[in-house]
Amino acid sequence: MFYRNMVLPSIRGIFIPLFILIVLLDLEFPLLRSILQLPSLLAKSGSGPFPGQDLPILKKVVQSEIIVVGKIQHLENDLLLLKAYSEAKENTPFQIATLKVEKNLLGLKNETHLRIGWPININIGRRVLSPGPFTIGQKGCFFLVKYPDQDFYFAQQLTSPLRDDSPSYKEDIEEIKKIVKVLNEPSKALAAKTAAERSQAINILLNKYSSEPQQLPKGKKLVRKPIDPAESKLILTILAEMEWKVKNENILALELFYKLGVEGEIHWAEPKFTTVEEYRNKMKLISKKWLQENKESYRIKKWVVE
Question: Which domains does the chain possess?
Answer without folding.
Answer: 39-164 (2.40.50.120), 185-305 (no CATH)
